[in-house]
Design a protein that fits this description.
This protein is of the alpha/beta class. The protein contains 9 helices and 10 strands.
Length: about 280
């Protein structure tokens, strides 16, 4: 597509196709699913970007499944280690069909706080239609409990009188539903080298969604961050996405990956925090 800008970050390699010369508006973000491993990856990347001056905490964000937990945590300033300390050993072991199980865990982290900048993708029952719930209308704990209720593994969660299950049933990231913005930053734990052919298929779907977003936001640039090979090797099977020890290692590696990304952004665009304030400079 003429004029399209996509910058990819995996394996510490970036491919940059002529960034636009116009000033920066706010960033919007889309966070994909991937179990406890995905939450750790997303918060590792997200916290490193925040620590480097990227204002993800105030950016409009949409999250799916694990991505809803990450979006909520970043918006509310909750760090990965704080979340893990809050729930201790109370991490659900799958399958766990008890009603309210996810809400209980989520409330340990988020309480009853809301975040108007956060939206979560869920699937309504019985027809499994995609629905977007807002953190302005519901507590974050309800959003994440609904968005990550894996069918057959965790009980559906009721919000506003309707039952919902994991938004990843229909799409791992729903990037096409992301908020408008000059830059769309997509973080996808299940893409690139994750799970071989399954990860590559998930990325094809994701890229189609990103193109659909760009059709509605023709001036926007697209940025995708996904695990590098070292991170992907931590989880070779879907069941390993729920292993706490693998998740903790994924967080550390993701933070390091994002620190490298920040360095390359700095080489291209200069100081990240200053660039967000200065309309004549550009970052992603």
């Amino acid at each position: 597509m003429a004029g399209e800008v996509t910058v990819e970050f995996d394996d510490d390699v970036a491919t940059d196709v002529t960034p636009p010369a116009r000033a920066i508006p706010p960033i919007s973000a889309a966070y994909g699913g991937g179990g406890l491993f995905g939450i750790a990856y997303l918060l590792g990347v997200g916290e490193a970007l925040v620590d480097g001056g990227v204002e993800l905490g105030v950016a409009p964000a949409i999250g799916t499944s694990a991505g809803s937990w990450a979006a909520g945590a970043l918006a509310l300033g909750i760090r990965w280690h704080d979340a893990i300390d809050a729930i201790g050993d109370d991490i659900p072991r799958l399958p766990d069909p008890r009603s309210g199980r996810l809400k209980h865990v989520a409330a340990e982290i988020f309480g009853d706080r809301r975040a108007p900048s956060v939206r979560a993708v869920v699937c309504s029952l019985p027809r499994l239609q995609r629905v977007v719930l807002s953190g302005a209308d519901h507590p974050i704990a309800d959003l994440v409990a609904a968005s990550s209720a894996v069918p057959g593994m965790l009980a559906p969660h009721k919000v506003g009188g309707r039952r919902y299950v994991d938004g990843g049933v229909r799409s791992m990231a729903s990037a096409d539903l992301a908020d408008p913005g000059r830059h769309l930053l997509v973080m996808a734990p299940i893409a690139g080298p994750m799970f071989g052919p399954a990860g590559r298929f998930a990325e094809r779907v994701l890229r189609r969604e990103m193109r659909e977003w760009r059709e509605r936001n023709p001036a926007g640039s697209l940025w995708i961050i996904r695990p590098n090979h070292e991170i992907a090797e931590l989880a070779g099977r879907p069941d390993q996405l729920f292993d706490p020890d693998r998740a903790k290692r994924a967080y550390d590696l993701a933070y390091d990956q994002a620190a490298g990304i920040l360095s390359r952004w700095g080489d291209t665009y200069g100081d990240v925090a200053e660039a967000q304030r200065d309309p004549e400079r550009r970052i992603a």
